[in-house]
Design a protein that fits this description.
The complex is a heterodimer of chains A (488) and B (154). Chain A has 488 residues and is of the alpha+beta class. Among the domains of chain A are: 6-42 and 429-487, no CATH class; 228-339, no CATH class. Chain A contains 16 helices and 16 strands. A five-stranded antiparallel beta sheet of chain A has the order 3-2-1-15-16. With 154 residues, chain B is of the alpha/beta class. Chain B has one domain (3-150): HybD-like (Rossmann fold, 3-Layer(aba) Sandwich). Chain B has four helices and five strands; from the N terminus they run βαβαββαβα. Chain B has helices at 18-26, 43-50, 93-102, 131-150; strands at 3-8, 34-39, 55-63, 71-75, 111-119. Chain B has a five-stranded mixed beta sheet, covered by helices on one side. In chain B, helix 1 (18-26) crosses helix 4 and helix 2 packs across helix 3. The model of chain B has no long low-confidence stretch (mean pLDDT 83). The chains are: A alpha+beta (488), B alpha/beta (154). Chains A and B meet through helix 1, helix 4, helix 6, helix 7 and helix 15 of A and strand 2, helix 2, strand 3 and helix 3 of B.
Chain lengths: 488, 154
C-alpha cells in the first residue's frame, strides 16, 4: 500500500468495540485512492459450536444476530434436515414458510421506514436531525407512522404464534416443527395478514408518489457511477419465482444470462472464499470466474445477494400484486438485470409486498392445520441449509458425528457475500464526493447511504447502550497522523 | 401497573450474558403479574418488546474497568428529546426509544430502569459466565428485586 496515502477512518464506536468500519485512503492530491469495508467480527464461533448437539444449533445460531434470528433459526433447522435426511412434512414446511414470510415483511418494513427510506423520503442532503423517522412522519403524516408500528407488531405477533416465543423462535427442529397453531391463532394471523397486505400496497404507493418523483432518488438510481454490473445470486423455486424459504440457488451473469443453477445443498461448489489482510471476513467469489479484485464485470467473480439480486435472478415473482410491481420496475430500467445499487430500496419494497401476499396465501394453505409435524430422522451426517435472509443468501453447513454432535460448522452470511460489493459501492460514492482533500460531514451521509442499500448486518454494533452509535471520521496525513476528526 | 423485566445480552457471549442470567435468577421469585424475559435483540425490537408495559426493568452490562458498582439509570421516554441523527441498520436503545417517542406511541412504558453491571473483558464466545460475572449476575438480580419491592410490587 502506498505510504503517502492519507487514511480516513469512519468508525462506529460501540459498547462492545466497533463492528464495522469504513477505511478511505486518499492520494497525495487528496482524492480517493481506495476504500474498504471492514468487519472486525468476533472470531471463534465455529470452534464454540464443535461438540455441541446438532439439535441445539437453531437456538445457538440465532443468538449471533440481534436483528434477524429467524433467518439463522431456519437456516440452521434446514441444515439439520439435510444432516438427518429428514425433509419436513408439508404441514411443517407451511408453518416455517408462513413464519418466514412474516419475518421478511417485517424486516423490510423496518428498513424502509426507519433506516433506508429517510435518506430519500426526507432527502439525502437534509440535516441529520431531519433525515430520520421524524422527518418521514413530517413528510407522509403521523397516521402512517402509527401504521408502521402497528404492522411491525403484526409481523412480530405472527412470528410469535408460530415460533413459540416473542423473541427467539424455538419451534424449528430437525425434520419439522415442534408445534402447530390453533384455529384461533390461524384466524388471528389471517386478520393481521390482510392488514399487512394493504399496508404493503400503501407503502408502494408512498414509494411511487414520493421517491420516484424525487429528483435525488431518480438521480441515484440512474447515475452511471452507481451502476455495478456484477453477478447475482438468489433462491428460486421450480418455476423461477422468488422464494425466501427454499429453492435452487441460481446465479445470473451481468448480462442476465444464466450462469449456474444448483440445488441449494450444492451451493458451496459455486464459491470460494479468500482472505484479505485488512479484514477478518472471508470474501467469497464465484470459483469458475475467479477473483480479479474489487471490480465488476463478467470477468470478475464478485457477486451480490439481497433484494436486488433476488429480483435479478428470478424470472417472475410468484404473487400477482408484486408481479405487477416487478414488471413496472423492469420497465423503468429498460429490462433486467438492474445494476443500479440504489434500486435495492425499490426491490426491497416489491419483496415486502410479495412476502405479505405469501403470508395471506399460506395462512389458508390446506397443509397448514393437518398432518404430521415431523419426519423421522435418519442417520446423522453432513448437511447444508440455505435460506434468503432479508439481506441475502444465508448458508449454514454442518458436519455431525454418529451421535449427532457437531464436528464442523461453516456459516456464510449475507453481508459476507456482499462485502466486495459494499466496498466497491463505498468507493464509487466516496470518489464522487472526496475532492482535493475536502472531507466534511456530508461524506458521512453519502457513504452511509451507499452501504445502507445493502442493509449490512452489524447487529452487535447496534447493541450500544446508552445513547447513539457515534460515527467518526479520522483523517490521517501521509505519515499516519490524525489531522482531522469529524464526529456526530 | 404492568411490569416487565428484561435480561438483555447474549448468553453465548461470556459475561455479556449477565443480564439474561440475572433474569433467570429472579424468574421464579417475582409475582405472577411481573413478566420476566431474556432478549438479545437490538434497539428497535427491544423497544417493541417493551410496548404495552408501564414500567420496564432492563438488566444489562457495561464495559467499565474503573467502577465495580452496579449503575442505575432511569429513563422516562416521554421526556426524551427528538432524534437528532439517522439510524443505521437497527439502532441503540435510546435511538429506538426516540423513534417511538417521535411517533407519539401511546404504548411506551412511562419508566425504564436500566441497571448495568460492569465487565472488563471484551466479549468472547462462551456459554458460561466468569466467576466475577456470576457474582455480578446475583448482584443484578438483587437489584432487580429491590426495584420491584420499592414500588410495592412484591
Amino acid at each position: 500500500m502506498n505510504e503517502t496515502l492519507r487514511h480516513v477512518s469512519i468508525d462506529p464506536i460501540t459498547r462492545l468495540e466497533g463492528h464495522g468500519r469504513i477505511e478511505l485512503f486518499l492520494d497525495d492530491q487528496g482524492n480517493l485512492a481506495d476504500a474498504f469495508f471492514q468487519i472486525p467480527e468476533l472470531r471463534g464461533f465455529e470452534r464454540f459450536c464443535r461438540g455441541r448437539q446438532g439439535e441445539d444449533m437453531p437456538q445457538i445460531t440465532e443468538r449471533i444476530c440481534g436483528v434477524c434470528p429467524e433467518a439463522h433459526h431456519f437456516a440452521s433447522t434446514k441444515a439439520l434436515d439435510d444432516c438427518y435426511d429428514a425433509p419436513p412434512p408439508p404441514r411443517a414446511r407451511a408453518l416455517r414458510e408462513l413464519l418466514y414470510n412474516a419475518y421478511t415483511f417485517s424486516d423490510h418494513l423496518l428498513h424502509f421506514y426507519y433506516l433506508g427510506g429517510p435518506d430519500f423520503l426526507v432527502g439525502p442532503y437534509a440535516p441529520p436531525q431531519e433525515r430520520n423517522i421524524v422527518g418521514v412522519i413530517g413528510k407522509v403524516g403521523l397516521e402512517l407512522g402509527k401504521q408502521v408500528i402497528k404492522h411491525r407488531s403484526y409481523g412480530q405477533k405472527t412470528i410469535e404464534l408460530i415460533g413459540g416465543r416473542p423473541i427467539h423462535p424455538v419451534t424449528g427442529i430437525p425434520g419439522g416443527q415442534s408445534k402447530g397453531i390453533t384455529q384461533d391463532e390461524q384466524a388471528e394471523i389471517r386478520t393481521m395478514a390482510a392488514s399487512c397486505l394493504e399496508f404493503a400496497k400503501t407503502t408502494l404507493d408512498v414509494f411511487h408518489s414520493v421517491l420516484l418523483k424525487d429528483d435525488s432518488y431518480k438521480r441515484f438510481i440512474s447515475e452511471k457511477a452507481q451502476m455495478m454490473p456484477t453477478y447475482y445470486m438468489g433462491l428460486v423455486d421450480s418455476e423461477g419465482s422468488i422464494n425466501y424459504y427454499d429453492g435452487d440457488v441460481r446465479v445470473v451473469a451481468p448480462d442476465g444470462s444464466l450462469f449456474a443453477q444448483v440445488p441449494s445443498s450444492e451451493v458451496l461448489g459455486l464459491i470460494e472464499e479468500r482472505t484479505e489482510p485488512w479484514t477478518y471476513v472471508k470474501i467469497p467469489y464465484l470459483k469458475d470466474v475467479g477473483w480479479k479484485g474489487f471490480v465488476s464485470g463478467p470477468d470478475s467473480g464478485v457477486y451480490r445477494v439481497g433484494p436486488l439480486a433476488r429480483l435479478n435472478v428470478c424470472t417472475q415473482i410468484g404473487t400477482p400484486l408484486a408481479q405487477v410491481q416487478y414488471e413496472t420496475f423492469l420497465e423503468y430500467f429498460g429490462g433486467g438485470p438492474v445494476h443500479a445499487t440504489f434500486a435495492y430500496h425499490w426491490a426491497r419494497l416489491i419483496e415486502m409486498l410479495s412476502a405479505a401476499e405469501r403470508v395471506a396465501q399460506l395462512v389458508d394453505d390446506p397443509n397448514l392445520m393437518t398432518g404430521p409435524l415431523r419426519t423421522p430422522l435418519g442417520t446423522p451426517g453432513e448437511g447444508v441449509g440455505v435460506i434468503e435472509a432479508a439481506r441475502g443468501v444465508l448458508i449454514h453447513h454442518y458436519d455431525l458425528d454418529q451421535k449427532g454432535r457437531i464436528e464442523d460448522v461453516n456459516l456464510i452470511v449475507a453481508t459476507t457475500h456482499n462485502v466486495a460489493g459494499i466496498s466497491m459501492s463505498i468507493k464509487d460514492m466516496a470518489q464522487s464526493v472526496v475532492k482535493n482533500g475536502n472531507v466534511d460531514e456530508g461524506i458521512l451521509n453519502l457513504v452511509e447511504m451507499s452501504f445502507r442499500n445493502y442493509d449490512p448486518c452489524l447487529a452487535c454494533a447496534t447493541h450500544a447502550l446508552p445513547g447513539q452509535m457515534p460515527l467518526v471520521v479520522q483523517v490521517h496525513d501521509e505519515k499516519g497522523n490524525i489531522c482531522q476528526r469529524i464526529e456526530r | 401497573m404492568k411490569h416487565l423485566v428484561i435480561g438483555w445480552g447474549n448468553p453465548l457471549a461470556g459475561d455479556d450474558g449477565i443480564g439474561p442470567r440475572a433474569a433467570e435468577l429472579i424468574a421464579n421469585r417475582v409475582p405472577e403479574d411481573v413478566q420476566v424475559c431474556v432478549s438479545s435483540h437490538a434497539g428497535l425490537r427491544l423497544v417493541e418488546r417493551m410496548r404495552g408495559y408501564d414500567r420496564v426493568l432492563l438488566a444489562d452490562v457495561r464495559i467499565d474497568k474503573h467502577n465495580s458498582e452496579l449503575d442505575t439509570t432511569i429513563i422516562h421516554p416521554n421526556e426524551l428529546i427528538p432524534l437528532d441523527h439517522s439510524v443505521r441498520h437497527d439502532g441503540s436503545l435510546m435511538e429506538a426509544l426516540q423513534v417511538f417517542r417521535s411517533m407519539n406511541d401511546p404504548h411506551l412504558p412511562t419508566e425504564i430502569v436500566i441497571i448495568t453491571a460492569p465487565v472488563a473483558a471484551p466479549r468472547e464466545w462462551r456459554a458460561e459466565l466468569s466467576p466475577s460475572g456470576e457474582r455480578a449476575a446475583h448482584q443484578l438480580a438483587d437489584a432487580l428485586l429491590h426495584q420491584l419491592e420499592v414500588t410495592a410490587v412484591v
